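Dataset card, provenance and construction

Sequences and ligand SMILES were collected as paired inputs. For each pair, a complete structure of the chain with the small molecule in place was predicted and serialized as structure tokens. The example below shows a pair involving magnesium ion. Curators did not alter the output after generation; any descriptive sentences attached to a record were derived from the structure itself.
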Amino acid sequence: MARRIVITSGKGGVGKTTVCVNLGTIISNIGYRVLLVDGDFGLNNLDIVMGMENKIIYDIFDVLQGRCRARQAVITDFFNDNLSILPATKFVNSRAVMASDILRIIDELDTYFDYILIDCPAGIDQGFVRVLNLASEALVVTTPHISAVRDAEKVINILRNSGYSVLNYVLNRARGDLILSGESLSISSISEFLGINLIGVIPEDDEISNQLMIGGSITKGTDAFYAFRSLANNLAKGKSDIFDCTKKYKGTMGYFRRILRKIV
Ligand SMILES: Nc1ncnc2c1ncn2[C@@H]1O[C@H](COP(=O)(O)OP(=O)(O)O)[C@@H](O)[C@H]1O
Ligand SMILES: [Mg+2]
């Protein structure tokens, strides 16, 4: 049976799709069979971030309409047999997609995968509720901004009330320099406010935004790579290794890096 995890946030643009793609890629490289499900009907973009948009023949709506079987809508990465996506549909009125129908499709695909990561839409309304019954484990993504943290807390309450038993959060776009200078919320204060386990810290890194602009995967050896690798090991292997985004801003060299980052 696959381990199913919804990746959610409440607030849009905080990095759900980024986390879904990079986490899924690393877990698949470890050797697990991973399916990334685009749960965002209408504003789907998982296929684009994965560079697979031209490969789509069938999407989830075709499965719902009986035009193909669930397996036929799954697209496997050209370079990585262990990594596949189930694309959402661009054209349909998303209200036509029922939660129970998506659950049936995911159940059908379950045996082929070790991990099913569901990239949720932003918000806490119908689109989010539709994917809630697909899993009982969630990865809540937030940034260190107060609005994102507050929205994450609302989502956590909904997840708890919906019977979710495993709740972890990822702090994305963390700025080590601002944490050290006290200009960003501290990681401990965010953890205290959210009241769930921190499973990964991903730094604010141009490597990540470039990935979305030009496609491809994160370069090995970068901070972003190490941060996602730690997150993947924590999730898949039960390790507790949180990337230290403040490390490179400590000491004399770190002091100059902080000043430089402020200027540029
Ligand atoms: N850690 C990061 N550092 C730099 N840019 C990031 C980071 N995480 C996400 N981004 C950028 O933020 C934007 C929104 O990310 P995305 O994953 O699409 O958010 P969501 O799926 O929550 O709407 C994208 O342009 C992405 O490249
Ligand atoms: Mg997204």
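Derived descriptions for this record:
Residues 95 and 235 are 33 Å apart (CA to CA).
The mean pLDDT is 92.
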